[in-house]
Specification:
- The structure is a single chain.
- The protein is of the alpha/beta class.
- The protein is built from 14 helices and 13 strands.
- The strands form two sheets. It has a seven-stranded mixed sheet with strand order 3-4-5-6-2-1-7. The chain has a six-stranded mixed sheet with strand order 9-10-8-11-12-13, sandwiched between helices.
- Helix 5 runs antiparallel to helix 7 and helix 7 runs antiparallel to helix 12.
- The protein is flat and about 80 Å long.
- The relative contact order is 0.12.
- The structure holds guanosine-5'-triphosphate and magnesium ion.
Amino acid sequence: MLLTQNEDTIVALATPAGVGAISVIRVSGPLSFSAADKIFAGKIKIADSASHTIHYGKIYDSRGELIDDVLVSVFKAPNSYTGEDSIEISTHGSQLIVQKIIRVLIENGVRLAEPGEFTKRAFLNGRLDLAQAEAVADVINSRTEASLKGARNQLNGLLSQKIEALREMLINSSSLIELELDFAEENIEFVSLNEVKKNIESIIGEIDRLLESYSFGKVIKDGVNVALVGVPNVGKSSLLNYILKESRAIVSEIPGTTRDIIREEVSIDGILFKLYDTAGIRLTEDIIEKEGVYRSRDAVRNSDIVIFINDAVNGFSLELFNELLELTSENRIIKIANKIDLKPDVNFSNDVKVSAKTGEGMDLLFKKLKIKALGTESYSEKTAIVTNLRHYNALLKAKEFLLNAVESINSKMTGEFIAVDLRNAESSLGEIIGKVTTDDILNNIFAKFCIGK
Ligand SMILES: Nc1nc2c(ncn2[C@@H]2O[C@H](COP(=O)(O)OP(=O)(O)OP(=O)(O)O)[C@@H](O)[C@H]2O)c(=O)[nH]1
Ligand SMILES: [Mg+2]
């Protein structure tokens, strides 16, 4: 494998900065072994050891002073994360030791890695495609079961395979048209354009399915904002506390208890919900409460889902409900009656009846939340989903070109026009997996990684 772009050997701390039991320093590139052998004394030289072996020894600085005893893991090209010769040095978890070792490596011709540079090299060396490389960051950042599963699927290539399959279908269609173009002067018709059109339309259908998956793909990856809203004293803070299973917000029988927004995160069924407990909305002269109410309205505007809480005893707040409809759309609102322990037979037009005191009805509330968040009751973990805006935009672009192609066929344009659109669509799909890429795209993607990944 030719690695002309990566002549440098890079180093970075791969574990979090701070004190830990151990720290791991990662080195990758052609000098990895020789630089290590200049500072490391073990039983055998790193350069002479087999791939995927671990070696105990001591690392010395340039004056010959001991820095630390370490373990060095050896990975030989192409069987490493980056595809290059690389090592991982496990040290005692001290920042001073890490700094010293990185410094002595730099003195021996290694340079500091840029953010995401190890993964970028893995991509450039064909170890991962671009969608998979992006999934590495998602796996690292995922905090719920669902986001981890989604990211793992993408890292395993589920999305990439889907994109590849669509590209293949496109390439077939365009080569049919191009073949026909080659023989155009001889007036031979090889393919029925209707056939090509049908192919293109089925590709558009597949793209639509992927585009649709983005709405819950995003939810799975980033979570969903949920505002707890209602008039004072209906039990918003009590509900927050119940869901969190802790006494996070102050609860009292005095209306107007909550003033500031209280934001907490919770994972329900593997989905991350970002909950915002708000000040009860009412007309008030109190200047602090007024600001709180102002913030409550903001929370309604900025939330994906609004839980509109009503007091079973005091009845449904129609006035506030109508106001909410001006701030958000009705399909984002879940209406609930709280305190049904006080009035079990409550009967106003609420979706869900709960008690923040006894927990009654909470299962149904959680189910509704999940359905609202995903836009569907369930999704198959085995299907490719789009969680990344860059991928979403590339799919939109591809679809645009394909619609153009269909349009060209309908209006009996010549094959050249159709072929150009098909090629453009194919390259838009190629952007997702990195078949087609620019330095700008790559820099943009990897700049968001942390150093050492
Ligand atoms: N019996 C019963 N009491 C509840 C329930 N939920 C809340 N309460 C009581 O209702 C009162 C108000 O509860 P909070 O959670 O402070 O209400 P809130 O909507 O946050 O009120 P503000 O912050 O003032 O807008 C408290 O005395 C709670 O103990 C419930 O399900 N059943
Ligand atoms: Mg409150």
